[in-house]
User: What shape does this take?
Amino acid sequence: MALRNIKPDLILSSCALRTQLTADVLAEKAGYSDCIQYMDELYLTRPEMVLNVLSTQEDKHESIFFVGHNPTLTELVNMFIDDEFTKFPTLGIFALKLDIDSWKEIVEVHNAEIDFFIFPKQFKYYIPKQIRATLA
Assistant: This one.
């Protein structure tokens, strides 16, 4: 994400300690200095609740990061893509491009373009030096 200069306008996270810790590190690495919204509604919930929360966000936010749990994340991704995504890995990052003008429209979107998918095992044996430098 650092190589592509991807930074969130807003980070929403489940209130669970593990997701809070993940959101904190993600925010630090992404250069995000605003408040992270830790929400009870995002803990062990259904994808429809995530969509409802997203639909209430201000339209000034173009890029929203959501830190959550499985199976919700897997089901959420599958609501937007044509192929069946089997399991969202721990610490995986999936980015979707949505063709919407307002977050209110997200509940009506049925397909999105996959921007990128990063999963930890792809770096098992090799971490490019540009990425390694951002981890320090």
Observations:
- The first helix runs from residue 17 to 30.
